[in-house]
Write a structure and sequence with these properties.
The chain has 309 residues and is of the alpha/beta class. It is built from 6 helices and 17 strands. Helix content is 19%, strand content 35%. The strands form 2 sheets. A 9-stranded mixed beta sheet has the order 14-15-16-13-9-12-11-10-17. An 8-stranded mixed beta sheet has the order 2-3-4-1-5-8-7-6, with helices on one face. Bound molecules: (2E,4E)-2-hydroxy-6-oxohepta-2,4-dienoic acid and fe (iii) ion (FE). Its EC number is 1.13.11.2.
Length: 309
Amino acid sequence: MAMTGVLRPGHAQVRVLNLEESVRFYRDVLGLVETGRDAQGRVYFKCWDERDHHSYVIREADSAGLDFFGFKVLDKATLEQLDADLRAYGLQTTRIPAGDLLETGERVRFELPSGHLIELYAEKTIVGNGAGLVNPAPWTQAREQGIGPVRLDHALMYGPNVAEVHKIFTEVLGFYLVERVLTPDGQGNAAIWLSCSHKVHDIAFAEYPEPGKLHHCSFLMESWEQVLRAGDIMSMNHVAVDIGPTRHGVTRGCTIYAWDPSGNRFETFMGGYQPYPDYEPLTWTFDNFGQGLDYPQRKLHETFLTVVT
Ligand code: M3P
Ligand code: FE
C-alpha cells in the first residue's frame, strides 16, 4: 500500500447558533445524512457516499466557528507514532477517550500555532454508504436529498503563524505543499494548500491576525453540473451565496462559497487536478490573488479576505 500515515480529513465540529434550524439546513438543503445525536446535544452527519459514521458534527453555541478538525490515520500504531512525533517536535498533545465522539476511537488533539485544534484518530465505526460491498449500486436514494455532496473534502482555516503550521504539516504529519500565494513582498506565504494524498488539497491555511478562524469546510460534488444544481438549490432555499459558481485558479476547483444559517461558510466544489508528492508547488504572486480565487472574473472578492467565523 502506498498510502500510509494521515489518510484524509475525517471530521469537522462546527458551532451553530440554532441547532434545529441548522439540522434542517444541513439535512434538507445541503443533503447530509443525520447519523446520531449525543448526550451533549451534538448532531452528527455524513455525506451519502462516506463510509465512516460521521464527518460533520454541529453543536449549539453563542458564536459560530470551528471547534476542531480531525484527520483519520491508517491505524493505531500510526496514531501512537504521530503522537510521539508531534511531542518530539515540541507540541503538546492531549488524548480524548474513545466514545467522546460517537462511534469514534481515541483521539490525539493538538493546537496549531494558528490557534486551530487538530485531531488524529485511527478508528471510527464503518457504517457504509448503504449500497453494500458486493455488486453495489453506483448511488443510493440518500444522494437525492438536497445538494447531496459525496464527501467532506477539505477545509480552509485563517490564523497567524502559517509558516509554522506549514512546517508541522510537512515535517511531522507527512503532507506536501501543492500551491501557495505569496505575501505582497514575495518573501513569505499568505496562503498555503496542503495535501496528504492525491487530492489537490486536504487542508489550507491563510495568514490572518485572529487565531482559530474557519474560512470554509468544503464538500465534494461529482460534476460541474452538480455544482450548478447546488447553486439552484441554494437559491430555492434562500441560502446566502458568497462567490460563484466559478472556478478557482488555485487548485482549479469549480466552486460555490455560501453560508450556513449561522454564518459558517461552506463550499460545494468539484474538479481540480491530482498532484503527487514529487510535484513542485505552484506559486501565485499576490497581485494575481484575484485569479487564484476567481479565475474567470479575476476578482479578489472582499468577503474572501474578511468574513470568517
Ligand atoms: C480554494 C478552495 C484562492 C482561493 C482558493 C480556494 C484565494 O482552492 O478550495 O477553496 O486562491
Ligand atoms: Fe475550498
